Recover the amino acids of this structure.
């Protein structure tokens, strides 16, 4: 079974440009998460989808970031316009089923997209 | 590499020795903890998890210990192999929710 896949693996853009990252979760996983690690920092949560709905977007840094998951399958994360401080590695993760307050399910991570804003 | 600028603590062990990686977590309401392994150029790979109603859980060559009193988590790797060389992250489900909060990470280096 394929794991979480992300595209592209690397992206180099100039400040002010737009970049769209894509994540394909493990087939059948309802939960999809975006995280990122910017240089010199820990991996930080960005947001959580349950199917096509945003369950928690408390980690989104500002309105230059837009995440979508139309149809509840793959997700995109758009950065527009990109700034220098957006450089880092963007990870997507997925987990199976609907989260209840009693059960936490394992999140499986993709390989990440390495974004460099010049 | 991805760790540039992130000053990771480093643990160096001899091949065949046991490794112990420690982690302090922050939120006493967290009830689920995970250890991930990240090799260069790859995403975090799930190793083992533990829920707060347990204090020990064993997998293949790995054991996770949880001490809720002092909010401490450890990962023990038995008979460490060169393939175990990676950065190891602990994560907690912050406050019992779904999002994970990651630690800084520990670089494990296995010397032949």
């Amino acid at each position: 079974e394929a794991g979480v896949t992300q595209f592209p693996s690397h992206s180099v853009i100039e400040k002010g440009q737009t970049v769209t990252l894509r994540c394909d979760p493990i087939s059948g996983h309802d939960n999809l998460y975006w995280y990122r690690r910017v240089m010199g920092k820990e991996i930080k949560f960005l947001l959580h989808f349950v199917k096509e709905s945003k369950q928690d977007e408390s980690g989104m840094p500002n309105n230059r970031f837009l995440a979508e998951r139309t149809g509840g399958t793959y997700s995109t994360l758009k950065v527009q316009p990109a700034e220098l401080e957006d450089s880092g590695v963007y990870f997507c993760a997925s987990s199976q089923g609907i989260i209840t307050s009693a059960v936490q399910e394992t999140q499986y991570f993709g390989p990440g997209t390495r974004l460099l804003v010049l | 590499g991805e760790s540039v600028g992130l000053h990771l603590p480093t643990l160096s062990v001899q091949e065949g020795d046991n490794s112990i990686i420690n982690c302090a977590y922050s939120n006493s309401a967290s009830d689920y903890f995970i250890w991930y392994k990240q090799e260069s150029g790859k995403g975090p790979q799930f190793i083992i998890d533990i829920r707060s109603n347990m204090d020990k859980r064993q997998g293949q060559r790995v054991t996770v210990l949880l001490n809720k009193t002092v909010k401490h988590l450890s990962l023990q790797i038995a008979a460490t192999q060169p393939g175990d060389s990676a950065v190891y992250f602990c994560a907690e489900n912050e406050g019992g929710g779904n999002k994970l909060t990651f630690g800084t990470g520990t670089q494990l280096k296995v010397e032949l």
Remarks:
- Strands of chain B lie at 10-14, 19-24, 32-38, 45-51, 56-58, 62-67, 72-77, 86-93, 100-102, 106-111.
- The CA atoms of residues 29 and 95 of chain B lie 4 Å apart.
